[in-house]
């Protein structure tokens, strides 16, 4: 006999805003110049995921909870080389620790993966 508490499933609305900017530093080496960062951290209602790519790539950015469940897909598609910002609208997510994982697959098939932890507070 249980306590009447089972798994809770909730649909979480996610708002995605992508803004592109140019790399003023000049040409970057493909796949050498790539990074992902998240701020502010800890965050309350929203956070920014910044992605820098040295070459065009297929990008997927996913947010996972601590149990490894996918809770949001922030980006999934082609990105040009340069700096990109993706907004994580987190007001519908419960407080806790989440992982933001980004993968970038280059034209030659090479894959770069990045994982950043973010804490949501209320």
Poorly predicted tracts of residues: 14-31
Report strand %: over 45%
- Output the helix-strand order: EEEEEEEE
Number of strands: 8
Major sheet strand order = 1-6-3-2
User: Which structural category do the helix and sheet elements fall into?
Assistant: mainly beta
Shape: elongated
Helix content: under 10%
Assembly category? single chain
Largest sheet: 4 strands, antiparallel
Whole-angstrom Rg: 16 Å
Task: Characterise the protein shown here.
With 122 residues, the protein is mainly β. 0% of the residues lie in helices and 53% in strands. The chain is built from no helices and eight strands.
Topology of helices and strands:
Elements: E1 18-21, E2 34-39, E3 46-53, E4 57-65, E5 70-79, E6 82-89, E7 96-105, E8 111-120
Antiparallel strand pairs: 1-6, 2-3, 3-6, 4-5, 4-7, 7-8
What's the gist of this structure?
The protein has strands at 18-21, 34-39, 46-53, 57-65, 70-79, 82-89, 96-105, 111-120. The chain is an all-beta fold.
Task: Using brief descriptors, characterize the structure shown.
122 residues, mainly beta, four-stranded antiparallel β-sheet, 8 strands, elongated
């Amino acid at each position: 006999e249980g306590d009447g508490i089972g798994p809770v499933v909730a649909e979480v609305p996610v708002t995605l805003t992508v803004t592109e900017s140019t790399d003023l530093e000049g040409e970057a080496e493909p796949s050498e110049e790539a990074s992902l960062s998240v701020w502010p951290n800890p965050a309350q209602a929203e956070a920014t995921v910044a992605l820098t790519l040295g070459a065009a790539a297929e990008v997927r950015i996913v947010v996972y909870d601590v149990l490894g469940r996918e809770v949001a897909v922030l980006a999934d598609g082609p990105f040009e080389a340069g700096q990109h910002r993706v907004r994580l609208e987190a007001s519908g997510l419960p407080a806790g620790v989440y992982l933001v994982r980004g993968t970038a697959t280059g034209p030659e098939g090479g894959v770069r993966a990045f994982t950043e932890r973010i804490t949501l507070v209320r």
